[in-house]
Amino acid sequence: MKLTLYILPMGFSGPVWFLILAIAYPGTVQGKVVDNFQPCQQFFKDGIAPQGFENEENKDSMVKICQMYKNAYHFATLYRTDLRIPVYSAYSYTNSNPKPKTCRPLKWFIEPQIENCTYDQNMQIIKLDTSDKQALDSDYERSGYQRGHLYPFSFNHQESATASCTLTNAVPEKQRANVKWYHYTEKVVKGLTQTCHNTGRRMYLVTGSDDYNHGNIKNRVKIPGLIWTAACCTVPRNQNDRFLAEEVEATRNPQTTNGDFSIAFMGTLFPDLNIVNVSVSTLQSRLNASIFNECKEATREIYEEVQRLLSE
Ligand SMILES: *[C@@H]1O[C@H](CO)[C@@H](O)[C@H](O)[C@H]1NC(C)=O
Ligand SMILES: *[C@@H]1O[C@H](CO)[C@@H](O)[C@H](O)[C@H]1NC(C)=O
Ligand SMILES: *[C@@H]1O[C@H](CO)[C@@H](O)[C@H](O)[C@H]1NC(C)=O
C-alpha cells in the first residue's frame, strides 16, 4: 500500500494532466436532444414517459433531453424553449444511500443542441451572449431568483449531482422556497427509497413545474407557480412488460411483485412555498396529464414506515 503511494506522482501524471484539461475544458459533460426518450428510457417507469404534457399548441417548443455527463445518462428532461424552463425531469434511484461529495459549480451547463441540432451533444459551460431558446446564467444574475433544481442535487452520487446543475433542469425559485423544497424532497425521497429498496424494488420519480401565470425574469424565463414530485416504487420492467434480467430475483417474492406503491407532493410557490401530500391521481388531474401508466397509491402502513425511517 505504502509503495503504491510513493509511485503515485509518476503513475498519476496522466490522470492529473487529464484533470487539468477537464477543468480547463469542462466539455466532458454531455446532453443530448432526442426525438423520443428511448435512449434514456431507464429513467421512466416501464420505460414509458409521462403523457399529456405536449399538445397542438405547445408541441413545437418542446424539447426532449437525455441528460448525459461523463458518457453516462443521469436523468431525462422535457424542456419548453418558449418558457425557457423544464416541464419535468424524470429519474430513478438504484441506491438508497449515496454519498455526494461534489461542490455545486458556480456556472451551470447549457444544452448546445437546443441552439442547433448539429452542434456537439456535449452539454457545456459556454458563455452565450443570448439564446432565444434556453435560459442562461445571466438571466438569473441579480434577478432575486435562484436556479431551483427539478432533478435534485442532493441525494445523488458525485457525477449525477454535478450533472443536475444544468440550466435545462432549473426553474426560478426564491431562495427560501428553493431551500425548503430541496430539504423536504431530500427527506421524503430518502425515506421512501429506503422503504422501496428494502423489498428489492426501484424508485422512479418525476419532478416538474406548472402554473405559468406568475410573470418571468428578465422578460425571458418563466416563473412557475407550482412544483411537484410523483414517485413510484416498482419492480423494473421494460416496455414489453418484461422484468429486467438483473432484477428477476426480486420478482420471485410475491410481496414484492404485488406491491407497487406511489406517492406525490406538490408545492404552491405563491405567496410562499406551501407543500401538501397528494395522491398521484390527484396530481395527474391537476396537471391534466398522466405521469405513471399505473402505480397503486401508498397505504397508511407505507406512510408510517416512511415516517419511522425519517425520525430515526
Ligand atoms: C386535458 O387533456 C386532454 C387530452 O390531452 C385535452 O383534450 C383537454 O382539452 C385537456 N383539458 C384541459 C382542461 O386542459
Ligand atoms: C446549424 O449549424 C450548421 C452547421 O454549422 C449550419 O449549416 C446551419 O445553418 C445551422 N442551422 C441553424 C438552424 O442555425
Ligand atoms: C407528507 O408525508 C410524509 C411521509 O409520511 C411526511 O413525512 C410529511 O410530513 C407529510 N407532509 C405534509 C406536508 O403533510
Describe the structure.
The protein is α+β, with helices and mostly antiparallel strands and about 300 residues long. The protein has one domain: 3-Layer(aba) Sandwich (Extracellular Endonuclease, Chain A). Helices cover about 30% and strands about 25% of the residues. The strands form three sheets. The protein has an eight-stranded antiparallel β-sheet with strand order 1-2-3-4-7-10-11-12, sandwiched between helices. Helix 7 crosses helix 11 (about 300-310). Mean pLDDT is about 80; it is low at about 1-30. One 2-acetamido-2-deoxy-beta-D-glucopyranose binds near residues 116 and 118.
Present the secondary structure layout.
Elements: H1 2-6, H2 8-11, H3 13-24, E1 29-34, E2 62-69, E3 72-80, E4 85-93, H4 112-115, H5 137-140, E5 146-149, H6 158-163, E6 170-173, H7 175-197, E7 202-210, E8 216-217, E9 221-222, E10 226-234, H8 248-251, H9 254-258, E11 261-268, E12 274-278, H10 280-287, H11 300-311
Antiparallel strand pairs: 1-2, 2-3, 3-4, 4-7, 5-6, 7-10, 8-9, 10-11, 11-12
Helix pairs in contact: 7-11
The structure holds 2-acetamido-2-deoxy-beta-D-glucopyranose (NAG) (3 copies).
